[in-house]
Write a structure and sequence with these properties.
The chain is α+β, with helices and mostly antiparallel strands. Helices cover 17% and strands 36% of the residues. The protein has two domains: 34 residues, no CATH class; 103 residues, Immunoglobulin-like. It comes from Astatotilapia calliptera (Eastern happy).
Amino acid sequence: LRRMQPMNLDTTFKTATYRYVSALIPDCPREGRDHTPVQPSVRIKSKTPLSGHHPAMLVCSVYDFFPSEIKVSWLRDGQEVTSDVTSTEVMPNGDWYYQTHSYLEYTPRSGENISCVVEHASLKEPLITDWGLRHLHLFDKPEGFYTI
């Protein structure tokens, strides 16, 4: 799929492909129009150990959504976090869908709840995915991928 990414970004290639496919399938939707929005999948994981009071890095990865317009933000105990947040640009997956990643650097505190909030055209309401230190004690699973 990564080899296909340059072709997916090439508008001439996409236009030619659309013309070819639409000749075979008359009802083929045009990219950017007539496409049904596709809900994103969200995964939160820690990039550094959550032990002690050292700054930790949480990554909220948002995959496989369409269209590309999306908003990703963070909450700490229900309050929006704006400092120590960085995000990537929205990137094509190479399969007509998109992905983006948001990073939150923070110092873990006992009992706090950190959430990644995703707003997208495919969602009737924001998708909130929680990450909390309590997850490390309640679940015997690899870090991340807890959608509440």
